[in-house]
Amino acid sequence: MATGFTDFLDSFVKGHDNRQLLAIPLAVFAVSLAILLVSFASSGSPLLLGMEFQGGTQISMGTTDSPAELEELYSDYPIMDARQAGNRVIMQFGVMDNEEQRQLEDDVMGRYSNVEIKQIGPVYGKDLQVQALQALLISFIGMAIVVFLIFRSPVPSFAVVLSALSDIVIAAAFMRIAGIELSLGTVAALLMLIGYSVDSDILLTNRVLKRRGTVEEKVSRAMQTGITMTSTTLAALVVMYVVSTFPYLVIPSFTQITLLSQISSVLIIGLAADLMNTWLLNTGILRWYVLKPEFRGRFNR
């Protein structure tokens, strides 16, 4: 399957000029960026924030009541989610004042046994927001510096950085559309995506700039290796997504592992975007760069 896709993509790249290759990924990048900007303008945040980043209360207890029944029972409180986890139900609530918080805890403690309560204040949530943003920015800036030190040329380095940025923006836009909250788990997925995307981009750039042969031959060889690498990762992530999202289809007592499901889905979309950005966007920029008249014969030999 990977071989057939590689042949198709190789033929597509060879059959289109650089502007045509750039048009598709740049259009997707622009639409994704617009989605995040509209979300930011309407809600004050480009993504839906999980409990870790906006504060709230999570209550887990042993009960035979269904999540739907509990949502109805506690509808007077700012309940955001209720889900089954084995023989327990986990409820998540938004930020409440102290009196409302106390009433909720007394109600739950009086009705159910084996109750666990986890609370995150809005101030601490804001601090985590800043720390998560700093982690993303530092990782991205560090990646950009390393890429420039490797290639010592602004255009190829810019192409790698732009491709990685586009991967993250597209994955983030997917999170907004799919209603996936930004949590510590999905932040980790976005950080992993930086590494995955740079890996294939550096492979392509290194082959084109430092190997012998025509540009088309070097792109084709890099594509065979790069798509095989990405395909194996995607296959593992698809298995992870299916197992964490639909375990009850095999064993009815098992429930969805929400965090793993969200992480795998974000990475799947991000790697799919990386296939487009590496082999269309990055290839188009590199091919334009190495075929410039002043480099004739230097990279195409």
Protein described:
With 301 residues, the protein is of the alpha+beta class. It is built from 10 helices and 4 strands; from the N terminus they run H-H-H-E-H-E-E-H-E-H-H-H-H-H. A 4-stranded antiparallel beta sheet has the order 2-3-1-4. The radius of gyration is 23 Å and the shape is elongated.
Describe the oligomeric state of these chains in a short phrase. single chain
How many β-strands, per DSSP?
4
Using the CA coordinates, give the radius of gyration. Answer: 23 Å
C-alpha termini separation: 31 Å
What number is the mean pLDDT?
A: 86
Helix content: 55-70%
**Pattern of helices and strands:** HHHEHEEHEHHHHH
Write out the strand line-up for the largest beta sheet, numbering strands in chain order: 2-3-1-4
Question: Largest sheet, if any?
Answer: 4 strands, antiparallel
Number of helices: 10
So what's the overall shape? elongated
Which structural class is indicated by helix and strand composition?
Answer: alpha+beta
As residue ranges, the low-confidence spans are none
User: β content, as a range?
Assistant: 5-15%
